[in-house]
What we know:
Rossmann fold; single chain; six-stranded mixed β-sheet; ATP hydrolysis activity; GTP binding; binds guanosine-5'-diphosphate; metal ion binding; 14 helices; three-stranded mixed β-sheet; 3 domains; Ubiquitin-like (UB roll); DNA polymerase, domain 1; TGS; alpha/beta; magnesium; about 20% strand; 12 strands
Amino acid sequence: MLSCGIVGLPNVGKSTLFNAITQAGAESANYPFCTIDPNVGVVEVPDERLDKLTEMVTPNRTVPTAFEFVDIAGLVRGASKGEGLGNKFLAHIREVDAIVHVVRCFEDENITHVEGKVNPINDIQTINLELILADVESVEKRIERARKNMKGGNKQYAQEVEVLERIKEALYNDQPARSVELTDEEKVLVRDLHLLTVKPVLYAANVSEDGVADADNNPYVQQVKEFAAAEGAEVVPISAKVEAEIAELDGEDKAMFLEELGLQSSGLDRLIQAAYRLLGLYTYFTAGVQEVRAWTIRKGTKAPGAAGVIHSDFERGFIRAEVVSYEDLVAAGSMSAARERGQLRLEGKEYVVQDGDIMHFRFNV
Length: 365
Ligand code: GDP
């Protein structure tokens, strides 16, 4: 299962947010492949299309797709030099697919700020610097090794050095490795370095509970937005404290509480959706009377690979798939109407699954 790591300085609200995530957490029986670990929370991805399909098909159950949030506490200034439990935490970041960086945008004199005062840009740069320094170390080691190997006359190493030098240059200028444009081939060359600053990032601006309805006008949030815009990153304003309270409510109570706060949806839902977008994923659906379900694939996955997400037997024995796009199905009104309209396509092994496809797989067992 794909995962997002939650990072940030101490006392910015990471644990509070993570507790809200686990409270709101998914039915883990539905997700046999999720990690069992106190620092990992599985979240379901809210998706209007899944709700609509459920309305159309009225199945016995509906299962959203899910991914994992990992609480990576303990990142402090000096982590790259082993401060705190530095290296251990950096190793945890290496394993996640994307990063949610929590930034403190709330004032509260009772809660110590590790750097003395609330200053979101400073905080972001402190964390980013640790990640950059850790990457500098990885890149320099690799350059040294590749240079040695180059002496044998192998061209691949020369190319590797060239790419690594470009990344090193960016890192020396305090820029993350993701800011360096790489071709697919170049990406493969550096993939096994598992650089921390290659991972996509979004900022969760943690605002105070009374400022949550007006978060966009919070000057700290505005600073974070400006900073994030420069690197093309998204910002989700959220009040971790409010989310922790919301997570304990359900149904009507939740709706009432949101209305009192002047909010339309929970910040956690918006954060989950933004994180899912950040992971660069597509969702396809299966829709049967037993179960309507959303599944996650990476962009560019072909039909057999998509089938394999359900079960490896589906991939091995794949024959073909019946496919209808979400828009066509909704316009037709039902699966049988879509069939009559000729919108149910038969696709083979080379078909690249699109976001929103409703798939029915035919396979040999
Ligand atoms: P972490 O060290 O980043 O995991 O931070 P915690 O989640 O433990 O939060 C540190 C302290 O800040 C706790 O006492 C929280 O209750 C408090 N806190 C978190 N979010 C908010 C908030 O939005 N407003 C206020 N006033 N306090 C908060």
